[in-house]
Specification:
Layout lengths: L16 H8 L2 H12 L18 H7 L5 H11 L4 E3 L4 E3 L1 H13 L9 E2 L11 E6 L2 E6 L14 E6 L10 H20 L10 E7 L20 E7 L5 E5 H5 L3 H9 L9 H10 L1 E6 L4 E7 L4 E6 L5 E8 L2
């Protein structure tokens, strides 16, 4: 059985990443995008209607507060057509322009945002207290006692790490932020298992690593690989570089058959608690590795039956048994 990834190989045409950085690396051009965003000058078909709002050249120049007509025209022309669209009625943001505006809004926040706190929920690995911090737009959850989940590649005690927009923290507690961050990561995994990057829609490449002499007792990390899990997968977008490295079982939970199977068991795998997912991985999932050809077979146990999925070394689904024996 084969489940091909959904996105084909892509090439960047029209404007390269370096060219895009050069275009956007100018305050005047970003001011033009900001003005069009605040004026709601955009095509609405991707949101609620098919109405296109625009600003005239004169109004856009006035709102951007640029007196020099030639200078303004030059910077505006650099944004057209990739970030700004010119129509018979005026100018509006393109889809890419709106994405740039949304990204700026998402990362906006105070430079000294202090989100350090003790979490109410204990560590799902050892029940010790956990703390949360926010650095470089990353939400970092650490256990105060155990080594955490990820071994030496992350700070000691790391239980959860996630890129997190500053704007999303303004009205949320630490525990709420963790819940939402965990949900976003599980969605990432579902996208990855379809071969799609949630950041840019690009194609995903994947690899699997196995600790052949893995030994982990009572939740301790293996002395050889430094983690609690013997099989890890790395999935990376070939276009924008967005990537995650996680135990292979966590990625497998993002497969559509696994989501459906676990839903029948009363588990919403896209929005579980950390305790729920750790308990499932520790007590309801078994993993076996075979060679020639390389296969990772993951068995997810339910109340009356089990689901068995087999993945190759590129994390493609190559085997599926919905009625596996327990």
């Amino acid at each position: 059985m084969s489940d091909a990834r959904l996105t084909p190989d892509v090439e960047l045409n029209g404007i390269s990443p370096d060219e895009a950085f050069a275009v956007l690396g100018n305050k005047t051009r970003l001011d033009i995008i900001r003005v069009l965003w605040h004026a709601d000058a955009a095509h609405k078909y991707d949101e609620v209607s098919d109405v296109a709002e625009t600003l005239s050249f004169t109004d856009l120049r006035r709102e951007a507060d640029i007196d020099d007509n030639g200078r303004f025209n030059y910077h505006l022309s650099r944004l057209v057509p990739h970030f700004v669209r010119q129509t018979d009625d005026g100018y509006r943001l393109s889809g890419a322009g709106k994405q740039i505006a949304r990204t700026v809004i998402a990362i906006s926040g105070t430079d000294d945002l202090d989100f350090s706190a003790d979490l109410e929920q204990p560590c799902p690995l050892c029940d010790a207290p956990m703390t949360v911090s926010y650095e470089d737009q990353w939400l970092r959850v650490r256990c105060t006692e155990c080594a955490g989940q990820f071994g030496e590649e992350t700070p000691y005690g790391s239980v959860f790490l996630s890129n997190y927009p500053a704007a999303a923290l303004t009205d949320r507690t630490a525990d709420e932020a963790l819940t939402i961050g965990f949900y976003r990561c599980m969605l990432d995994n579902a996208y990855f298992m379809k071969g799609i990057c949630r950041e840019c829609g690009g194609s995903i490449s994947a690899s699997v690593s196995v600790c052949s002499d893995h030994e982990s007792h009572a939740g301790d990390s293996c002395a050889r690989c430094g983690t609690r899990s013997p099989v890890w997968a790395t999935q990376r977008c070939e276009t924008c570089g967005f990537a995650k490295r996680l135990p292979v079982e966590v990625f497998a939970l993002g497969l559509t058959p696994a989501i459906s199977f676990l839903n029948e068991q009363g588990i919403d795998v896209l929005a579980p608690s950390m305790d729920e997912i750790v308990d499932l991985l520790d007590n309801g999932v078994e993993t076996a590795v075979s060679e020639d050809p390389f296969r990772v077979t993951i068995t997810i146990r339910g109340d009356a039956r089990a689901l068995e999925v087999s993945l190759d070394d590129e994390m493609d689904l190559v085997g599926l048994n919905r009625d596996a024996s327990e």
